[in-house]
């Protein structure tokens, strides 16, 4: 199967930079929707103004800009691989927010180096795992396990219907045996990957985290809730 072997770290980072370093732009009509649903979802999960929050792959704060002022000043943190996104996010926050978010560029989830000893009540990753390789999902979960004291919400393209090498399909968003090599190459180019939740759960457990499948939410894609194993989740596991 095309794409069954994961590229090495250097190749992955080059792929990410080529795809994302210019910055991530969306259609204008998408922004009001993302801005409404991401903030609404996190508040429903219990996010309060005094909580310390981290947006992984924050982009230009398309969906989380309203949380900058909702949270107490200094509680909004964000990282992104794209310097252009971070510059745009900071400029946007200065225009529409009273508070200034703490944003920085990071290519390997270096949150413990950037904010030593800081523990986050909530970490959010909308459409991040959908666009990174398995090795980087593993690294993200490892880092999160050292900095999370509350809940980590992440979206994925889920596919548990076929045996997936190392937890991922590596070929498509919705697995389809009829997909041509051309279609698979296009998904590789776009960095569109689906993941097996059993695999993610196993990796999470290796880092003393527990996985709960939230499923469909207003945010779109398939929502996961990840928390320290000692933290009891109210979410229901879905097979």
Tally the helices. Answer: 8
Rg result:
17 Å
- At CATH level 2, the architecture is 3-Layer(aba) Sandwich
Please identify the structural class as seen in this structure: alpha/beta
Reading off the top of the CATH hierarchy, the class is best stated as Alpha Beta
Query: Widest sheet: strand order?
Result: 3-2-1-4-5-7-6
Shape: globular
Please describe the biggest sheet, giving its number of strands, its sense, and whether it closes into a barrel.
Answer: 7 strands, mixed
What portion of residues is helical? 25-40%
Please tell me the total number of domains: 1
CATH homologous superfamily assignment: Vaccinia Virus protein VP39
Mean pLDDT, nearest integer? 85
Strand-residue fraction?
A: 15-25%
CATH topology: Rossmann fold
Number of strands: 7
**Could you state the order of secondary-structure elements as H and E?**
HHEHEHEHEHEHHEE
Low-pLDDT ranges: none
Distance between the termini: 26 Å
Q: How would you summarize the topology of this molecule?
A:
Elements: H1 9-20, H2 30-44, E1 53-56, H3 65-70, E2 76-80, H4 83-96, E3 102-105, H5 111-114, E4 120-125, H6 134-147, E5 148-156, H7 181-190, H8 197-206, E6 209-215, E7 222-228
């Amino acid at each position: 199967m095309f794409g069954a072997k994961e590229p090495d770290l250097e190749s992955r980072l080059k792929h990410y930079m080529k795809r994302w370093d210019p910055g991530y732009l969306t259609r204008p009509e998408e922004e009001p929707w993302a801005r409404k649903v991401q903030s609404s979802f996190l508040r429903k999960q219990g996010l309060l103004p005094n909580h310390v929050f981290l947006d992984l792959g924050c982009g230009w704060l398309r969906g989380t800009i309203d949380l900058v002022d909702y949270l107490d000043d200094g509680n909004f943190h964000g990282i992104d691989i794209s310097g252009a996104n971070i510059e745009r996010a900071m400029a946007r926050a200065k225009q529409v927010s009273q508070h200034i978010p703490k944003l920085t560029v990071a290519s390997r989830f270096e949150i413990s180096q950037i904010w030593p000893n800081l523990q986050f009540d909530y970490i959010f990753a909308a459409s991040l795992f959908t666009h990174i390789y398995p090795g980087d999902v593993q690294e993200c979960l490892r880092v999160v396990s050292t900095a999370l004291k509350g809940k980590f919400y992440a979206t994925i393209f889920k596919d548990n219907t076929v045996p997936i090498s190392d937890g991922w399909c590596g070929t498509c968003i919705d697995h389809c045996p009829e997909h041509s090599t051309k279609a698979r190459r296009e998904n590789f180019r776009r960095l569109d990957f689906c993941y097996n939740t059993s695999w993610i759960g196993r990796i999470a457990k290796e880092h003393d985290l527990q996985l709960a499948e939230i499923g469909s939410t207003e945010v779109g894609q398939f929502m996961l809730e990840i928390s320290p194993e000692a933290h009891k989740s109210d979410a229901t596991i879905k097979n």
